[in-house]
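Dear U.,

Please find below the material for section 3 of the report. The protein was modelled together with magnesium ion; I have listed the sequence and SMILES used, followed by the predicted complex structure.
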Amino acid sequence: MEARKIETPEPLLSINNIEVVYDEVILVLRGVSLDVPQGQNVTLLGPNGAGKSTTLKAISGLLKTEDGEVSRGEISFMGERIDKKNAEEIVRSGIFQVMEGRRIIEDMTCIENLKLGAYTRNQKNINNEIERVFEYFPRLKERTGLAGYLSGGEQQMLAIGRALMANPKMILLDEPSMGLSPLLVKEVFGIIEKINKEQGITMLLVEQNANFALKHADYGYIMESGKVVLDGSREELLNNQDVKDFYLGGNDHNKSFKNLKSYKRRKRWL
Amino acid sequence: MNTELLLQLTVNGLIVGLLYGVIAMCFVLIYKSTQVVNFAQGEFLLIGAWVCWGTLVWLDLPFYIGFLLTLGFMTLFGILIQAVFLRPMIGEPIISVIMITIGLSMFFQSLMKWIFGVSAESYPQVFETSVVNIAGLNIELAYILSLIFSVVMMAGFYWFFKHSRMGLAMRATAFDQQVASSLGISVSKVFAASWAISAMVSATAGIVIGMVNGVSSALSFIGIKVFPAVILGGLDSIVGGVVGGVIIGLLENLAEFIDSQYLHIGNLYTIAPFYILLIILTIKPYGLFGTRDIERI
Ligand SMILES: Nc1ncnc2c1ncn2[C@@H]1O[C@H](COP(=O)(O)OP(=O)(O)O)[C@@H](O)[C@H]1O
Ligand SMILES: [Mg+2]
């Protein structure tokens, strides 16, 4: 048997059994734990409403802007607890979230958006940094108009580029493939992998599109209804019968892990 | 037709209009970044002008020291007003927020009367001459100062929002507060900065006007005149505020010309801008520059 988790002395990010409530009553995460080792590309999969975005916002501190809070458990980054910190402090400590739906600033140009990515940083070498981002996304360089007029794919690239500008240790990506054509999804995932390898930036990537995400990931977690129901390395997940049935090209969308025998077995065993 | 008078009034209109434009920018700055409709904008002018007057007349300080002290005071004042009165109102209905700023407006108007008295006071003479002659037009030196002030402020705002780190952060916050947080921008710092800048620049405008017309509660009425300018420009557009201000300034003086030459109604210049405002808003409900969202393609 292979080890369930990849051997590292201490993961870069570690989430330990967190609960998240919105508006002090709505319990959304019910004991989520996951580890993201330094330099890896980890993916978090699951159906709509599973709590994937909530998990990312819990890490980045953006939960607080939506009246949510981590009510139990802890999140640590580089050995330090961050679940009580606000979003600003967390960006400064090296975690940058690219939110669902890109959320670029539409009434600004690409360059202004990129400059804002570097808000928390020393502003000295900013033009070199912008050039570095353009090397990953050459087509952004030609777009001089307002970012609101960019295509969906270009906006996603800009959102990722903006994250790079912060020079983060870790990027949280929320559904980068959303609304993009398969060809663009491929391109975007390729660039994410390149950034991960070349810059050594650790990635935690949320997707509903399991096919692409798993192919590029080192390790994956699968969430349902506010809990992690399965995790494993890329190979383990790609070869797992339940994952194959439900996430990879499975056309029966009424299936859920809860209805699958092997999942029930595993649960009892746990 | 008396062309000389018309020309004189047009120049006046332009100069006063640019000043309105600066105050409108201050108003839009607060509205855009904190979503507060600040009915106490005029009181920022009033307080700034009185405080500066106080440092010059009561404390007998040289102008530049009094002026710098006033700027420092207004910065703190703006931050304090935001933190004490407006921050607790975040998320409350807009009408409650408006009631707060109207309340603040009335309170500070009365407070200024209580401290500085009800009669108008003039500034000590800061410059030697008071009237200069340019191309046959008699222009008060203070008007030229006001023109320089307006242009510098506008250029400053342009540079600030286009190139400075804080200016970009303010625009990001105005666009979407959650996005701003995700970039590591402290939204509460941006709120404080907006109020501080707005209060400081408004106060300077108040001092400039005070040097021309003297300091009196009439200064806070300028805050009301800026409303047509701002609404004309579209409430959330800084450029719109400037254009609106110039239009109001010109209209006022044009109305004054028509009134004095032909109609003889008296005081037409104070109400004309509001009539024009009504007409324009009927045709363009978002104002001249008001934004609707960019449609993504
Ligand atoms: N701001 C919020 N306030 C209250 N409930 C929320 C909020 N955001 C998300 N939820 C709820 O939390 C659950 C998980 O949402 P989310 O984390 O967005 O899921 P996912 O990203 O996996 O689709 C959903 O049931 C959703 O309705
Ligand atoms: Mg989501």
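For the text of the report, you could mention the following: The CA atoms of residues 51 and 70 of chain B lie 6 Å apart.

Regards,
Y.
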